[in-house]
Amino acid sequence: MSKSLGTLLFAGMLTMAGQPAFAEPVSLSDALARGQDVSPRIAKAKAELKAAEGRAMQAGVRPNPEISAEVENFSGTGPYRSFRQTETTVSVSQPFELGGKRRARKEVAAAEREFAQIALRKAEADLAYDIIVSHAELRAAEDRAKLADSVYARAVELARIAETLVDVGRDPPLTKLRADALLAEAKAESLRAKAQLLSARQGLALLIASDDPELSAIAQAVPTPSALPADAQSLDERLAAAERDAASARVRLAQAEGVPDVTASGGVRNFRESRDTAFIVGVSIPLPVFNRNRGNIYAARASGEAAEAQLAQTRLDTRFSRRDAELMLAAANERVSALSGAGLFQASEAARVAEIGYQQGKFTLIELIDAQEALTSANLKLIEAELDRARALAALGRANAQ
Questions:
Q1: Which fold, 24-62+97-258+293-399?
Q2: Which fold has domain 64-96+259-292?
Q3: Is-contact 222 132, C-beta < 8 A?
Q4: Which of 131, 187, 308, 322 is the most buried (most CB within 10 A)?
């Protein structure tokens, strides 16, 4: 461990010590609840759902009518110098959408609203996965830090005993050198474990918007996710299917927009000189000579094909991720069961006996170090196995999210 890293860690701990701390460590259920309340990604997904609902509301609105007024035959020459020959026309025109444009817009907006609803649920599931993993990583980092401190304390005591035995001439000077090297390694590992703890603490704090400088995680089992029925779609599949449906609706809208609309108008014309009035009626239809919206139709169809392909890929990815999570969970359960049973007890007992025997001169320093390293390794493997199990449960829960 470099001096600069040690100085950084020391300065970070001093800075955090001057800040207020929360009264209690956070449980997984509390972290999940707080994360859902304060997460920017959830706020973004909710805002996008509101926007989709607004577009759905607007999609069914018909075009507004237009009113126009025209004044003709004034301020000219001859008899048109004044306003005596003026003709005034007031008319109202109304566009009529043809080809099912309004219905197509409503279908697109409804599909996009459905997509936004599922996207919100996906954001919630993704956040839950991140919080579960971060909570488990913080708990594992705390366990590793405690173990590193314990190993360091044992190394300090071992160095003291080795120094005493060398001073009285029972062990050679090499024994003290080996014990001092072990002490230096334990100190470096303790600093590394503290750095990992600070990183894990910051990771969870960012997800739940906590300013607790001593944030810690309560040991809490990750709930086992319920299995999905064989014919049920995962959340990712539902989202991809919603995008496919929206793409199909956009194709129909592009085709409808290629149909020209009709604008009908009607009004009244007033002839000032004779004080007569007359009705006028008109119809206008664009001629689809240059623009038939073919490019947009082509693009919409291509987007639909891409959405269909994405749905197929998502189905493959979901099957793989679910199966992978199940295999990882089974393996982690086996490891936790094997490491937390008799093996850990035997390693602990061997280290205790070796320490007593070394003090009594029955074991060498190397034998004691081997026994302590075996115990440390067993504890670290158990911590990692429990962390892997939490990650697998989080991944399986995310794969089965609805």
A1: Outer membrane efflux proteins (OEP) (1.20.1600)
A2: Outer membrane efflux proteins (OEP) (2.20.200)
A3: yes
A4: 131
